[in-house]
């Protein structure tokens, strides 16, 4: 089934009824182009968000956890390689190690919910370089999710977290800069998108101060680059 530009815009307007769950909508992962204007679906969505940037940035509900964001459960020990939770396994392998451009991985699967019914996920990885704390939205090498989904999910987690408490729980300076960044594999779907002419997506990322970082795995070790 095809979609027109207006079809996508109508879905965007409907999704704005709950900005905190905008990134979860299925149309965010539509690939291909509109039937009538030959635009990438994600470009139409990104353009819409750029035109409604204040509504998006200020419409995400902050959840303050009563429990600490930093939990004692993390030891980086992988107990079940066949669990199918590939992204979590990658995060565990990267945990407690230093990487170029992003710093040290100080946590993974950081919870955002305060109560079970809260609509919030978990931060894949937290990286700290001495000045900036990065909320990294990790996608596995063969992920078919769009870069737009990755950007919006990471930014939603940034706005969902109580930043002052997050920094305090990890004993980081209150002056720490906090950003949300896509963390995807080089030569994957998301990396390919960034090498294309996606002007609205890149403009949206500028608005959200969301810079992507790219992972390579070489001989069982991970490396991080900016391109």
Can you put this structure into words, describing what you see?
With 227 residues, the chain is α/β, with parallel strands linked by helices. Helices cover 32% and strands 20% of the residues. It has helices at residues 5-15, 41-51, 53-58, 86-94, 147-160, 163-169, 189-194, 199-207; strands at residues 98-99, 103-111, 122-128, 132-138, 177-185, 213-218, 221-225. It has a seven-stranded mixed β-sheet with strand order 1-2-3-4-5-6-7, sandwiched between helices. Strand 6 and strand 7 form a beta hairpin. Helix 1 (5-15) packs across helix 2 (41-51) and helix 2 (41-51) runs parallel beside helix 8. It starts with a helix and ends with a strand. The model has no long low-confidence stretch (mean pLDDT 94).
> Which residues sit in consecutive blocks of at least 5 with pLDDT less than 50?
none
Structural class: alpha/beta
**What sequence of helices (H) and strands (E) makes up the elements?**
HHHHEEEEHHEHHEE
Principal-axis shape equals globular
Provide the β-strand percentage band: 15-25%
Give a summary of the structure in a few sentences.
This protein has 227 residues and is α/β, with parallel strands linked by helices.
Which descriptors would you attach to this protein?
alpha/beta; globular; 8 helices; seven-stranded mixed β-sheet; 227 residues
Task: Map the helices and strands.
Layout: H1 5-15, H2 41-51, H3 53-58, H4 86-94, E1 98-99, E2 103-111, E3 122-128, E4 132-138, H5 147-160, H6 163-169, E5 177-185, H7 189-194, H8 199-207, E6 213-218, E7 221-225
